[in-house]
C-alpha cells in the first residue's frame, strides 16, 4: 500500500532536539516586571477609586427639590 507511511506518522518521533531558547536579558526581565507591576497597580487603583463610588450605604440618595410653580399672583 503506497500510503502506509501516513498511519505510521502518529508514532514517528524525531531524535533531533530543538535548540534551547535564548535566555532573557536583565533589561527584558526588568521591562516585563515593570509592565506587570503597572497592570497590577492599575487594577488596585481602579478598585480603590471604584469601590467607594459603588457603595450605596455611604451616599444616601437625596431627592432633588423642585421649586414650586408659582400660581401667578
Count of helical stretches: 2
Q: Per the principal axes of the C-alpha atoms, what is the gross shape? A: elongated
H-E order? HH
Task: Name the structural class.
Answer: mainly alpha
Please mark out the parts with pLDDT under 50 across 5 or more consecutive residues, or reply none.
Answer: none
Largest sheet: none
- Determine the N-to-C terminus distance: 108 Å
Computed over alpha carbons, the radius of gyration is: 33 Å
Number of strands: 0
Helix content: 40-55%
Beta percentage is under 5%
Mean pLDDT reading? 79
Describe the structure.
Residues 55-73 have a biased composition (Polar residues). Keywords: Membrane, Transmembrane, Transmembrane helix. Helices cover 47% and strands 0% of the residues. It has two helices and no strands. The chain has helices at 4-8, 26-54. By secondary structure, the chain is mainly alpha-helical. The longest helix is centred in the middle third of the chain and has 29 residues, at 26-54. It is elongated, with a radius of gyration of 33 Å.
Amino acid at each position: 500500500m503506497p500510503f502506509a507511511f501516513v498511519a505510521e506518522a502518529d508514532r514517528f518521533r524525531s531524535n533531533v532536539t530543538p535548540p534551547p531558547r535564548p535566555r532573557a536579558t536583565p533589561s527584558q526581565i526588568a521591562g516585563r516586571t515593570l509592565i506587570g507591576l503597572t497592570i497590577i497597580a492599575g487594577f488596585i487603583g481602579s478598585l480603590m477609586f471604584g469601590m467607594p463610588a459603588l457603595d450605596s450605604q455611604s451616599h444616601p440618595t437625596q431627592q432633588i427639590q423642585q421649586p414650586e410653580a408659582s400660581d401667578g399672583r
